[in-house]
Write a structure and sequence with these properties.
With 117 residues, the protein is mainly β. 12% of the residues lie in helices and 43% in strands. It is globular. The two termini are 23 Å apart. One of its GO terms (molecular function) is protein kinase binding.
Length: 117
Amino acid sequence: MASQHQPGIAKEYLSLPILLMKEPFLDEDGEQFLWSGFSIVGGADPAIRQRIYNGGIYISNVTPNSPASKCGLKINDKILQVNGYDLTTATLEEARKFMQKYPGLWMLVARTRDIHF
């Protein structure tokens, strides 16, 4: 769940710059493409928005040993920007299409962390 808060537990919010360089990969047909190794959910489309994502684009999966895991992306990171483009109001389809265009992704992500006293 994205940024779910529990009473009595403080949250720390971090904004992290991340550079992800996609790597060449072969699909099942032997066609080469650039692979990032992560999946996204959420988006600003009210027709498909799930309440827990608050309209943002979130990382839902990171493949081990992928470019995404190597650069430090984590499940539940919220993608704020990619290559200077604001994704906070993007639909899921807009975000996917935008990120597929580039071999490298300069990302600004927001990450939460529980602080236990």
